[in-house]
UniProtKB/TrEMBL annotation, chain A:
Isomerase as UniProt keyword: yes
Localization: Mitochondrion matrix
PANTHER family: ENOYL-COA DELTA ISOMERASE 1, MITOCHONDRIAL, ENOYL-COA HYDRATASE-RELATED
Record protein name field: Enoyl-CoA delta isomerase 1, mitochondrial
Similarity section: Belongs to the enoyl-CoA hydratase/isomerase family.
Record keywords: Acetylation, Fatty acid metabolism, Isomerase, Lipid metabolism, Mitochondrion, Transit peptide
Role of this protein: Key enzyme of fatty acid beta-oxidation. Able to isomerize both 3-cis (3Z) and 3-trans (3E) double bonds into the 2-trans (2E) form in a range of enoyl-CoA species, with a preference for (3Z)-enoyl-CoAs over (3E)-enoyl-CoAs. The catalytic efficiency of this enzyme is not affected by the fatty acyl chain length.
Source species taxonomy: Eukaryota, Metazoa, Chordata, Craniata, Vertebrata
GO MF assignments: delta(3)-delta(2)-enoyl-CoA isomerase activity
Automatic annotation (TrEMBL), chain B:
Protein name per Swiss-Prot or TrEMBL: Enoyl-CoA delta isomerase 1, mitochondrial
Originating species: Coregonus suidteri
Annotated catalysed reactions: (3Z)-hexenoyl-CoA = (2E)-hexenoyl-CoA; a (3E)-enoyl-CoA = a 4-saturated (2E)-enoyl-CoA; (2E)-tetradecenoyl-CoA = (3Z)-tetradecenoyl-CoA; (3Z)-decenoyl-CoA = (2E)-decenoyl-CoA
Record pathway: Lipid metabolism; fatty acid beta-oxidation
EC number: 5.3.3.8
Lineage: Eukaryota, Metazoa, Chordata, Craniata, Vertebrata
Amino acid sequence: AGVLSQLSSHSRNGRVCVSPCFSLQRRNNSTSPKIKVDLDSSTGVAVLMMQSPPVNSLSLEFLTDFCINLEKLEMDKSCRGLILTSTLSKVFSAGLDIMEMYGTSPERCGEFWKAVQEMWLKLYGSNMVTIAAINGSSPAGGCLMSIGCDYRIMADNPRYSIGLNETQLGIVAPFWFKDTLVNTVGNRTAELSLELGQLYSAPEALKIGLVDRLVPQDQVLSTAQDTMSKWLAIPDHARQITKSMMRKQTIDKLLSNREADITNFVSFITKDSIQRSLRMYLEMLKSRKV
Amino acid sequence: MANALRNSAKFGFSGVLSQLSSHSRNGRVCVSPCFSLQRRNNSTSPKIKVDLDSSTGVAVLKMQSPPVNSLSLEFLTEFCINLEKLEMDKSCRGLILTSTLSKVFSAGLDIMEMYGTSPERCGEFWKAVQEMWLKLYGSNMVTIAAINGSSPAGGCLMSIGCDYRIMADNPRYSIGLNETQLGIVAPFWFKDTLVNTVGNRTAELSLELGQLYSAPEALKIGLVDQLVPQDQVLSTAQDTMSKWLAIPDHARQITKSMMRKQTIDKLLSNREADITNFVSFITKDSIQRSLRMYLEMLKSRKV
């Protein structure tokens, strides 16, 4: 439900996709860390680098790593701000790992979905200043991560795209994805965006307010650092109470419905018709690579 | 007096303002004065014509109720019947709303349903207005408003009930919820729909001032999504429809329902109270006086 890793080398609209050779690689050895964190205790800023080839897919393993790292930073009194970025060329994150949803058991699906919820709850509800340094394409779950942050800086490349494109795959963004999107771009744009499953180029994303700033690719991280200094100049307690006031209602809506949301997801995704949609999509991706 | 008023043209409301005078503020296009002297349209002519192309799954619903596609009880009943038929028709996936009348999409609620009518009749009328909105805003079909003329008040409500709005690029056409200019008030569900479309601040400003926006202004604030030349409104709606219909139905429908359910439920759980409120408000002497003054103002412009 965050779908769509654009693994094909061909794509509509000339958008950048991951090169075909990645899709033939074996799944990344799980002893290499998928996430690297540099914490500068003097500035209080951590940079979390997603480095899980080919496309920083949000698998159960990745999400678990992510949440562990986030929790450590949240508990670390010396850490006041977090920059999220990617080490992979052209991709921030291609979203939820479709293999966690296709052909897996209901139990495993449920475990996976709980981890997706956890990622969003920790990120959207973080007390730290969170800045997404979006240095590549960011569909689906990658978009969710981005809009979970306080601020979004994207590389000014019209071939990078970002958006919640579930419906294009025949699936549906859950209500908390929708709420986060509405909170970011407003109701009308969110309705249009979600129904059409739209992916926006970086310039389009800026225009609708899905991202806050566009800068040249090589300035994304430095701009994030500069922006972070500005945010950290605000007294922490005041900023945190304000952030919580803004986001609490949205967060509580999921908190009070977590189990039901997992149940809904599992029963939806395990439907024959939905599994068929997913299979067709996987086959479409494969055929593009040949 | 009542007779003369009944013989006068029907104009819109939703509480508001069909600009039937040939003179109008801001140079906006209004219906020509000769319409106002016509008799009420013969009720055996259909006020609504539907062309359903079963191969594409697209229906075009044409409002053809001269002079200004006023939303009367009769019109609304026809509208709802047609909408329900299309909703139940498995071969129909998308609906385009448009008008056959020159320069007018719909001038809104028929003021004669609110002026000098019995409370019972008022209540019946208001229930039909609710029904129109519930069916349209809650439709599972892709709905596109091809706004080929002015669309104040109830016409605006219809438009913002759709998924997408394409308007003719004519600065003399206007659209908006202008109730307060007439001394009446848009009900909460009109307000909710407007907020969902243009955001809270703009909705507050728009509703308090009862603003009518020209087509270019409407695009600017997001009240409509696209402006095209008059003769391209319908074809653009068809092209847009194809794009929307390329999305798997079930995914789009569940998403649409997720977006709109809360707003719809707010009226569903308060329908009777909303009718009662409307009837007691509209039948107040002071409000009836406002309506009469408005009718007289329109009449005097035509002389």
